[in-house]
């Protein structure tokens, strides 16, 4: 899993490209920790198929809204209503506690609830979609076959790929091959 889109809600959208990355609770646990929604030591025993289904549903709604924004088309009001309803929920509570070495670390207070984690991601989507500055930085990857969306925070805002190392490198290799083929056919 990659966490390089610039927003947690876009990282969730990216979990379907190129294949389903959160088919079950086990993979959702990995994503939740990687996205920083739960501290590393947080036990996630209750995460199951129902949680994964809820996050996939939120992912579909966020993607619908983000794509509409990118294309300049009308917003799907049903998707917007569902995201708003989730965003209105209480986010997970954070506490500072001492670890075994005596250092302060983050921990979720009151247990981990699916609704609270969904609220955190939905709230991130609402913040993204209502912030004109961030909306202006939304980009779709120009990589061949890539459908990822990211925030272009590069200097000059001319970033073309979700990842220079992946899609950018593939594009550069393909361009080199085309030039080599064209030079060889002369």
User: What is the approximate shape?
Assistant: globular
- The number of distinct β-strands equals 4
Whole-Å distance between the termini? 43 Å
DSSP helix count? Answer: 7
Q: Can you list the strand order of the major beta sheet?
A: 1-2
Determine the structural class based on helices, strands and strand pairing. Answer: mainly alpha
Strand content: 5-15%
Question: How is the biggest beta sheet arranged?
Answer: 2 strands, antiparallel
Give the radius of gyration: 19 Å
In round numbers, the mean pLDDT is 89
SSE succession: HHHHEEHHEEH
Low-confidence stretches: none
Give the proportion of residues in helices: 40-55%
Plain-language structure description:
By secondary structure, this protein is mainly alpha-helical. 50% of the residues lie in helices and 10% in strands. The chain has seven helices and four strands. A hairpin with an 8-residue loop joins β3 and β4. The protein starts with 7 loop residues before the first helix and ends with a helix. The mean pLDDT is 89.
Helices, strands, pairings?
Layout: H1 8-13, H2 25-34, H3 49-71, H4 77-87, E1 93-98, E2 104-109, H5 114-130, H6 132-136, E3 138-140, E4 149-151, H7 164-184
């Amino acid at each position: 899993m990659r966490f390089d889109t610039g927003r947690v809600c876009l990282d969730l959208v990216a979990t379907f490209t190129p294949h389903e990355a959160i088919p079950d609770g086990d993979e959702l646990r990995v994503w939740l920790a990687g996205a920083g929604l739960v501290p590393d030591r947080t036990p996630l025993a209750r995460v199951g198929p129902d949680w994964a289904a809820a996050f996939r549903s939120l992912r579909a709604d966020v993607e619908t809204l983000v794509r509409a924004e990118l294309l300049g088309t009308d917003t799907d009001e049903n998707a917007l209503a569902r995201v708003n309803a989730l965003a209105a929920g209480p986010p997970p509570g954070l506490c500072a506690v001492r670890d075994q070495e005596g250092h302060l670390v983050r921990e979720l207070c009151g247990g981990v609830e699916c609704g609270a984690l969904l609220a955190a991601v939905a709230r991130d989507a609402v913040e993204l979609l209502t912030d004109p500055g961030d909306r202006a930085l939304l980009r779709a990857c120009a990589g061949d076959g890539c459908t990822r969306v990211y925030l272009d925070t590069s200097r000059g805002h001319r970033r073309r790929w979700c990842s220079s190392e992946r899609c950018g490198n593939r594009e550069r290799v393909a361009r080199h091959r085309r030039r080599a083929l064209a030079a060889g056919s002369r």
